[in-house]
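Task card 7
Instruction: Convert sequence to structure tokens.
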Amino acid sequence: MAESFDPFDINISNSPLDPLKTDAEDNHEVSQIEAALAGVASGVLKIPEGFVSLGAELMDAFELTENAAAKVEQVFDTINPFEEIAEQRAAGKIVEALVSIGVPAAAGAKIASKLATKALKARKRHVCKFKR
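Output:
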């Protein structure tokens, strides 16, 4: 009987005999540009992580759950492979922080600006009604 071959069953190991792994992968030093790009990707992934971990920490604080924040952290550590690369260089750390804080701050500023404009227009209409 012939042995069946599954093309999707690929065995990738960390052994030194692995033909898919080269010495360059073991001796690879992360450049500033690579770390900065990884920082962008990691910063984007950290935005939802912040919201979810805040909710988990509040649930832990009010004793609704136990260790929810730790579990959320473990899940996001597996989801975000760029964090390790970004943390190897200062450029990656800085860009990651700017993206994870700057993007929500810019969105919040845009929303606040629209609300303030609407409030000023409403106030102007309201004041004009009483002057007549």
